[in-house]
Write the structure tokens for this entry.
Amino acid sequence: MTSTPMATALAVPILALALSGCASFSPDGGMDAVNRATQARTGAATTLLRTEHDRNALAEQLKPMLAQPLGADDAVRIALLNNRALQATYWELGIAEADLVQAGRLQNPAFGYQHKRGGGSTSIERSLAVNLANLLTAPLAVRMERGRFEQAQLRVTSEALKTAAETRRAYYEAVGAAQAVEYAKQVAGAADASAELAQRMRKAGNWSAFDQAREAAFYAEAMADVARASSAASAARERLTRLLGLAGTEGGYRLPERLPELPAAAPELADVEQAALRERLDVRAAAKEAEHTAASLGLTRATRFINVLELGALREREGGEPVQRGYEVTLEIPLFDWGTARTRRAEAVYMQAVNRVAETAVNARSEAREAYFAWRTAYDLARHYRDVVIPLRKQLSDETLLRYNGMLLSTFELLADAREQRVAVAAAIDALKEYWIADAGLEAALGGRPHGAAAAGDKPNEANKPNEANKPNEASQPNKPNKPDQTTGSTQHNAHGAHP
Amino acid sequence: MTASSNSRRTFLAGATTLLSAGMVSRAGAASLPEAPVHASAATAAPLVPPNGRPYNPVVTLNGWSLPWRMKDGVKEFHLVAEPVVREVAPGMTANLWGYNGQSPGPTIEVVEGDRVRIFVTNKLPEHTSIHWHGQILPNGMDGVSGVTQPSIQPGKTFVYEFVAKHAGTFMYHPHADEMVQMAMGMMGFWVTHPKDIRQHAVDRDFVFLLGAYDIEPGSYTPQVNTMLDFNLWTFNSRVFPAIDPMVVRQGDRVRIRAGNLTMTNHPIHLHGHTFQVTGTDGGWVRPSARWPEVTTDIAVGQMRAIEFVADNPGDWAFHCHKSHHTMNAMGHDVPTLIGVDHRGVAEKINNLVPGYMVMGDKGGSMGSMRMALPENTLPMMTGTGQFGEIEMGGMFTLVKVREGQARGDYRDPGHYRHPKGSVAYEWTGELPPAPQAPGMAPLAPAQGKPVDVKRGGGHEHH
């Protein structure tokens, strides 16, 4: 470019302008691209609510979704449509598009009118000045503004994805916390039975106040744990409510009673980094930014000599003399400022952008790896609880019951074991919750889940009815690995990590 | 029931369970007597002496007597100390250490004045020795390892040789790693019969050792470090209902000899008869020193021989009178639930622990409840009599006295058929009013309030 003669440099944008025509407002305000990208990455649509009508239509759309216990994908869907912060972000697109359209429009020509009278003579000078630089640079400006608009689209999409990921996390937090309350209550139930039996032991004269107080203390502490768990659960739920943008009666939505099951198989660390580089919007945005600064660098180079180029059409009449027509060109002589400083600056800005791209890529890959390992650990831990800890706890409970049967152990030990088993189940639930949160984290680190992959955790597992949770043999297998509906989940998850 | 060779014996159970004689290497076989092995837990028929001086053989309850060989006028026995698996009762086996396939080891029967040579081969993973409890013998044959002899290392064979000087009731057990080896079941009975077959003669002579084990429910090997809190109280490492009954003919003079190798004393009680203690591990008790008893306490490390005439037909309980000793594995830390109302709570517990059943609120009896137990664990009380559950286990069996029982027949004759009108029965007639002290309110059942004892009243201000 540097060697291109000025004329050619000018001809290119002019030609481009002639071909591109003026930018105009799109019917969707740029939301279509955002929607498409969001849908591809979250499986959920998003839309800009422009009018009260849109809002009412959305309310109608939400009604059936809120009538059911909410799945993780439902939550994401609702958040993408209903989160007000996101809606505010969507309007950024409007602003960016307006800038784009503005850039595409030629500056209005300036009409000058001079009327001079003095010494009996009247001089009227009319001039029509068009900012030629504007004319010449408009195509480039449009390109830049289009770039900015695209960046805005990326940013808005990225915000949408962030909200989706946050919603997913908040969703699992809320469901897991509610489930933890359920188990805390069951622990308290075991303690309650112990305390009550202890009271009766005391009443029958079989136990001392010491023994009774010990059992009562267990119960009292278990109740405190229930209160703590309930408080944590309501906080988690409210966080989710805020992300869903729900208020009023809509806030009474229901959540499933159990977390979705662990997928049957974990994908390997294959292409995680590649997927991150390919899919992540921050990487794309950085690349775009570099492209734009490159364009801007080109522009600066092209216009370094014509900074203040002005082209004016002249129409002058002095006195009664005939009208003189002509034009005037003011050309800055690059005597003192050869534009090198501006070129250097543009180069520096460009190189900055290039490095930002590299940085973003390095970060994206690292974050993808980190998220994957966190995910993998969470998966292994949840599976360890499901396949090792809980079955062992179950075995312990079975053996304890056998010992109770043989009058080798007392009811109190049986209840103490029930308490301990619940604690282990609660830990298993926590591990499962951490898994799903890590899953959302991995999804975010990879720039969204691959197209078409509905969340494995969309539907709460039907096999885990809440009333079955009361039975230790069921509770000890909160997540049966061999449910048919899990196989789909697992393939999705395989696709998740190994998406090409 | 005839005299049999060393390699072929008949057992009461009718099964030949002699497994093998090939316990010794070829090189040693030339000089060593064979070491017969017995695997069945059934009571073996008395071993009628095939050679040597004659004697009236004993019956080892759920055990057997060790055959011997005569060599140059010496009775040669071969004991092999080894790990064994003992059936404590059907449904439960224990990994024990014993002799010749069994724990306790086989009973050794000799006659007063016999020269006895005993080969002891050690097949345990550690050294051992054998002490011949109650025998008067040369100091170097006394079997206290480190004191009178070096211990017998694994794989080694030692020889003990002495003259059985005194008739009486004895036993053998290690004095090497003593606590472990006895806790693992290393013990055996020893009877030295009188030279004169008519002296101290009885019609039936039963012998067994009292042993205690602590085998955690669900496990197989005794806890060797337990000192007092045992959960299996055994006659010859068997618990009721797996202890054979002592079957006698009405009118028989019966001797029961027992030795105590547990860590506590056992008041052994016989129903339906009075008996006399006629012998200890110190020898025979002079008739003038005997006194009638229905219970005799056998202290730790003691042997007792009791004798009675079985003149009263029936199925008579014979047991240790420490009530925990007539129970099998039980939880010693289980709180008492008697009188505790379970209404409401039981449902709560059932929600948390399906399969939970209230037990013990009316007492310890589980009646006919048959619930799943940990593996290799016996119910506390089993055994069924003709009138229902026998709520005893452990050190408990029956002395079955029958009119028609043939001499030498030890087979279980089944439940006793009571003569008409000789069994306790339910009174269905009118009940007389309970006598009552004048001016007193009728007695109300106890309300079970906790005892509230005020202590040190009035001393607070001192």
